[in-house]
Amino acid sequence: MTNISRGHNQTSIIVEALLTNPRASIRKLSTQLNLEYNSVRRLVKTLFSKKQIVPTIALPANILGREAAFIKIKGSNLEKITYFSLYCNHVITYIEGNNGKEAIVVIAAENKQKIVKFIEILRSLVNDISEIIIEYGVLPGETLLLVKNTCSKCGYFDICGNNTLSILARNNKRNNKRAKNILH
After folding, report:
1. Do domains 3-55 and 59-160+168-173 have the same CATH topology?
2. What pLDDT is attached to residue 121?
3. What DSSP character marks residue 100?
């Protein structure tokens, strides 16, 4: 076995172990995988520095909203939608096709009215949209949605009103009230 394939196998094993327990310490990983501590440390550090693994925060769809929309947009100059999609916490995925003349955006929100706000933002970003097709649905509650930023970094946070942090704070207050009611 060459050093390259051995390194690749060790990397795969470490990534698998991190998928099982992302909070595992380097020492625990090295003991569990029967690898040298420094070797595991070096591999994990390399994976982070090359951005092959990144720490992320994900929240259940029950918190950010289970209502979803599959939006297909046809037009030109869709670059602004790309930027919006990269930084908006409510965008689940973005796919660009047909040499940048088509885009698919999947959005999650608390209700359809908030999804309509997102669609209005998308329309305001691009002037020459020739067609928009929208399909609505509901995400399973266990679906994890990535939190990409604090919403204050989003250029449209004032318009959309879907601040992720305020949604978390509101849900936290509800949970605290429920806990108090149960205790009393």
Report:
1. no
2. 85
3. T
Class of domain 3-55: mainly alpha
Taking a C-beta distance cutoff of 8 angstroms, is the pair 156, 91 a contact?
no
Query: H or E stretch including 155?
Result: none
Per the prediction, the chain carries an average pLDDT of 80
Tokens read off for 110: 């608390």
Mean pLDDT, range 74-89, rounded to an integer: 84
Question: How far, in Å, CA of 182 to CA of 184, rounded?
Answer: 6
Topology at the third CATH level for domain 59-160+168-173: Alpha-Beta Plaits (3.30.70)
Buried b or exposed e, range 136-154, using 16+ CB within 10 angstroms: eeebeeebebebbeebeeb
Q: What is the pLDDT of residues 138-154, one digit of tens each?
A: 999 888 888 876 666 66
- What are the CA-CA distances from residue 44 to residues 24, 27, 32 (Å)? 12, 12, 15
Which sequence spans correspond to the domains of the chain? 3-55, 59-160+168-173
